[in-house]
TrEMBL record:
Residues 859-1105 form the P-type ATPase C-terminal domain. PANTHER family: PHOSPHOLIPID-TRANSPORTING ATPASE IG, PROBABLE PHOSPHOLIPID-TRANSPORTING ATPASE. The gene is ATP11C. It comes from Nothobranchius furzeri (Turquoise killifish). This is Phospholipid-transporting ATPase. The keyword DNA-binding does not apply. Its cofactor is Mg(2+). It catalyses: ATP + H2O + phospholipidSide 1 = ADP + phosphate + phospholipidSide 2. Pfam families: Cation_ATPase (PF13246), E1-E2_ATPase (PF00122), PhoLip_ATPase_C (PF16212), PhoLip_ATPase_N (PF16209). The chain crosses the membrane at residues 84-102, 288-311, 342-361, 972-995, 1010-1029, 1041-1062. It is found in: Endomembrane system; Membrane.
Amino acid sequence: MIRVRNFNNDKFSIYWPALAAANLNWFCDLGVDERRVDNRTIYIGHQSSLVNEDFIPPKFCDNRIVSSKYTVWNFLPKNLFEQFRRIANFYFLIIFLVQVIVDTPTSPVTSGLPLFFVITVTAIKQGYEDWLRHKADREVNKYQVTVLENGQETPKESENIKVGDIVQVKENETFPCDLILLQSTRDDDTCFVTTASLDGESNHKTHYTVPDIERDLKSLNATIECEQPQPDLYKSLGPENLLLKGATLKNTQKICGVAVYTGMETKMALNYQGKSQKRSAVEKSINAFLLVYLCILLSKALVCTTLKYVWQSKPGQDEPWYNKKTQKEKDTNLYLKMFTDFLSFMVLFNFIIPVSMYVTVEMQKFLGSFFITWDKDFFDPEIQEGALVNTSDLNEELGQVEYVFTDKTGTLTQNNMEFIECCIDGFQYKHRGASSELDGFCVTDGPVNKLQQKAGREELFLRALCLCHTVQVKESTEQDQREDNLDQVDGLRIDENVLQPPQKERGFIASSPDEIALVKGAMRYGFTFLGLESKTMKILNRNKDVEMYDLLHVLNFDPVRRRMSVIVRSGSGEMLLFCKGADSSIFPRVRQEEVERIRLHVERNATEGYRTLCVAYKRLSEEEYAQADAGLREARLALQDREEKLLAVYNQVETGMSLIGATAVEDRLQEEAAETMEALQRAGMKVWVLTGDKMETAKSTCYACGLFQRKTELLELTVRTLEDGERKREERLHELLGEYHKRAVQDAPPVKAGGTRVCFASNQDYGFIIDGASLSMVLNSSSESNMRSYKDLFLQICQNCTAVLCCRMAPLQKAQIVKMVKSSKGSPITLSIGDGANDVSMILEAHVGIKGKEGRQAVRNSDYAIPKLKHLKKLLLAHGHLYYHRIAHLVQYFFYKNLCFILPQFLYQFFCGYSQQPLYDAAYLTMYNICFTSMPILAYSLLEQRISIEDLIEDAALYSENAKNAMLRWGLFLYWTGLGAFHGLVFFFGVRFLFSNPALQDNGQVFGNWSYGTIVFTVLVFTVTLKLALDTRHWTWINHFVIWGSLAFYVFFSFFWGGIIWPFMKQQRLYFVFANMLSSVSAWLVIILLILLSLLPEILLVVLRNPRDPHIVPLLVPDKHD
């Protein structure tokens, strides 16, 4: 409700939006203005209400839109805080501080440099992404608008609009804020808008000016009292006077409106979900594995510290004759020294925590995202664009999706309705080629007047199509002529051969795209709608004669009645009621003997995915019309229970009709939409359709794209089903949820054990349908216990259904559904697809956005953007599968090779008196993860294809192998950890066995401790690198280069590092050690034998393995029961 007080007339008025169509909406009262707490008062043009009053303008938020995350001032602290929430980053910060403060065996550079690199790279990447969001916000906020100030047109930036400003908007411009319509250039004081960026619908909606407003807005001195901002779109969309931000003005040269909600208080902004930090399942697994390895590290440090002091407690061990303590060491507190030793052991063993893994993972994600961008299959020649990757942090999530939430209009469909066929009195008519017999129905070619004996009924049916609608004819402008005279909804041309010359350059606009399709269907058979002028509808019949009908009443469509009607008076004075609607709504209101002739056609068309409507009519006598007219006027004047009274009159008028026929209209699906949906379901994904569209349209689309099959039993929870019976909605909701739960969950056969996804063992498939109003009752029940119960029942029902359709959804409701599923048991991975601003909230809650013709909001806020729905198949089944496999192997491999690296260091302490003596040289410690072993795993994680892309796309069931984070489960993690421990033990004790020989060199000398460590390190580097070579299934020249090049670089570096005396080093531990080591045949033999012994189990596994399928060679098949 909006209340306007006009001080020029010393009165206030109440405007009821729904009464606008009848122009019966302006009531006057001389009483006192009642103020409600939840209302806001707005002074139009910022003029004070009374001259004698002190005017203090109320404060409202400005019109700036903010979607960015950081500012210049908070970027550094906020970003650092978020990064150090990562366990590894925080841990290495602590280790770095310990190395700086305490005298430790290794330099602070070994941990500080990699940490600085990781933090810097991540900050630059996140800063760049946020800069793009700032840039997008700036484009919106700096957009030039026209504001009327003191009657003058003043240009302003959008962000400077204030509540109360009178804003001027021209055709094809978007509204910069929420406006109350005050003035329009159209003669009937209306304007047309499209709300594609709000609810995905590109059809035109009619809005009305506030009545009795002065034409000269300079002298307007009034206030508006309206409700506080609220996010519900559907309480405002429709024939009323609130114009929403983001909507576009159409078919109207210019309007003026007063700003009532601005900035972050507009309905569009209130439906925007803030951009939160998304963390992948792989990152969560990494954090869990890090905790395990951190516990191993603490245990190692604790064991070594304890054994050191146990060993030193023996006589002569604490202070041997060759290593006397200084006085400072003697005076040091024992417990402080124990703590310092514990920290030193922590630093010595800290390389078991792979900080360089974060660098490699960041590089893998960043570089890997280019493969999506470079994929030529994603290029769309129509828009000359390919795929976009806005965030590379979630590449691997594309391979584990369990729930797909998709918008309908512009995503599943092209929003392009086409008239397919009609049925008149049981006879089927198709506008096709030759005549034929089909299912016993007469199929005619061309104009229906070929069947002369049925001409009367056919013409009546075609007149009904031409009259029963809200379509308007738009006069073409110069711009329209340049655009080739396209219609405003579906872009189809009007047949120029049908129209008379004055109407040749006209287009159709309507509140529903299927209405235009029906009008065009009538045009095919010779009846053309010429337009509505002064309540007179004109039709051009097939004899080229113009028929004129007075439009008396429009009984608007609503989701409860599921039909709409018009009452017209013909030129001969005959009163006719034409009605069209869903079959379930029309059949009970017509003569039953007429139903059977039509029912079979309607059911067949519905199963084929067409949108079906039945058409009926009724002749009204003067008395019947007078009674209906009086009833409608009285109901529209009612201030209380107005909707119920109107519904009662509608139901009274729409009875005793005669059924003429039915129509079939197709909303064209996106290219390969059905194949894509089928592939996703075969891959084990559940598909939910979340749309703001009507239920009938959305249901037809679900049938067309194969989400609902002919055998699917639909469970409906909508306003219509809740109003069945005499009980309250809450009671009916409880009953229906219980009934559906029993059928879909309790009575369903148990799911087969070992399945990673829900599989349906029963022959009965269920589909679930719910609308926005019913969902609000489920999620916002009056009782907390009931709300939890309803929510659980609803979720369980949906999870046991093959597909779910949610219609008439507000944007925030879409996000609520995604969040509810995300938070359910098992935390399934979700993916959202949409192309409009109304889809932004659910995209932010999940992952994916698709480019569409309705705007770029979804693309800007998505993590990935692809031009067409069909590209989703390859994105998930191929790219997603490979991304997940690559990064999962990378993570497991990093932990494995670091355990191999540090376990010999730990074992060495048992043979050096726990003196914290390093086994490896500092150069090896620093370069092991950075240079010697980093490039092969990076190349593997970018290029590996254990299954070819063609096979992955062809066999969608392969996708389910990655379900539930299969390759990062604890079983596989323990396998890799055990493998690392086995290799570490082989390295250390194998070399120790070699050193039991007293003479390893020709001169009789033995190797020292640095030679010992160098041999261990050489075996380590070759083993972990060759292990990765054995795991590689897809070899490229890059793999060969980095694997053999890394090994060659290690050998070259060891010769180079130990072969030169470096003047900047105080001590050079490895001088000629490597060359001297390789002079020993025993060292060569041990190195080769230990490498072969370590890799022998892996080699036998590869040789003896029997692949399940010719194109699948799994490295390690995950246990489905794990």
